[in-house]
Amino acid sequence: MYRYIKYFIFAAASFILASSNVLAESACIPDTQRGIGSLGRIEPRSRVIKISHNAGPEGARVEQLFFEEADSVKSGEKIAVLSDHIKKKAEVETAKARIKVLEMQRVAEQAAHAFNKREHSRYQSLELSSATSISLADAKRLAFEQSQINLKRLSAEIVHAQSDLKVREAELNNTQIVAPVDGTILKIHARAGERIGDKGFLEMADLTKLDVVAEVYESDLLRVKIGQSGCIHAVGFKRAYYAQVRELGFLVRKNDLNDTDPLADRDNRIIEVRLTLESEAVVELQHQIFRQVTVRIVP
């Protein structure tokens, strides 16, 4: 009798556990009749960053490319060098050399100024005692005043040259493209020898955290709260993936992701809602950035 009771308890526990698993899995099975349904897209939390150049309207050509697509880069790491890098580097060295020349001239002029100051003071006293001519004393005074003017001119030229050096250094920095964040290079639009066009140089993103951007109809927004559960699904997925509402958008606009249904309203007003995908989805979906998915948020 005890054996049958024990078997009954074990069977009941197994049934309850199996039922809970089924309920948990069914919570993320696509069902348009439950929750708030919408279209969405997979996107890195960092967003996809489009990197371009800062060479102005004349554009720029890539001289060297140090990474390839799918390579990981660190923030501040040099990705590429543009074609005018050598020229801008030479301009920086020229500006530095000019500053050194001006500083040496100022040192020489300071020595001359000190001498002219002593001569002017000496001839002033001699002029008072009538031991020297007025014209010679005036010549010493003029030499002293001229050395003062030369010092001020050289100091001003040094300040101007230092400002010019900063401009040259900024232009040199613009010939090097560095990674703005840690991430992965997704797409390269211009390789060595090619001119960077309207698409920019490359696209990169941090793929360690993925989001789903759901386009929720404005009429449903009041039912969406931060922290609510949701799931995403698409044709070809191994399974539905769990997600959690993290951000609610601010702008109401027309939807970008149009349904394939020919009867669907193309002018629906939507608000973007960001959901954080579960960690397992990061590995399985990182090669499907911008993939269109169906999203269901459970109020």
- Within the largest sheet, what's the order of strands? 1-9-13-11-10-14
- Summed up, the domain count is 3
The chain-level mean pLDDT equals: 83
Unreliable parts: 1-27
| Helix-strand makeup class | alpha+beta
Question: At the fourth CATH level, what is the homologous superfamily of the largest domain?
Answer: Efflux pump adaptor protein, beta barrel domain
Total of DSSP H or I helical runs spanning 4+ residues: 4
Structure, described:
This protein has 299 residues and is an alpha+beta fold. The chain folds into 3 domains: 25-45 and 209-298, Elongation Factor Tu (Ef-tu), domain 3 (Beta Barrel), CATH 2.40.30.170; 51-83 and 176-204, RNA polymerase II/Efflux pump adaptor protein, barrel-sandwich hybrid domain (OB fold (Dihydrolipoamide Acetyltransferase, E2P), Beta Barrel); 85-173. It has helices at 2-26, 85-128, 134-173, 279-285, and strands at residues 36-44, 49-51, 62-65, 72-73, 78-82, 176-178, 183-188, 202-205, 210-217, 229-233, 241-248, 253-254, 269-277, 292-298. The strands form 3 sheets. Strands 1-9-13-11-10-14 form a 6-stranded antiparallel beta barrel. A 4-stranded antiparallel sheet has the order 2-8-7-4, with no helix packed on it. Strands 3-5-6 form a 3-stranded antiparallel sheet, with no helix packed on it. The chain is elongated. The model is unreliable at 1-27 (pLDDT under 50).
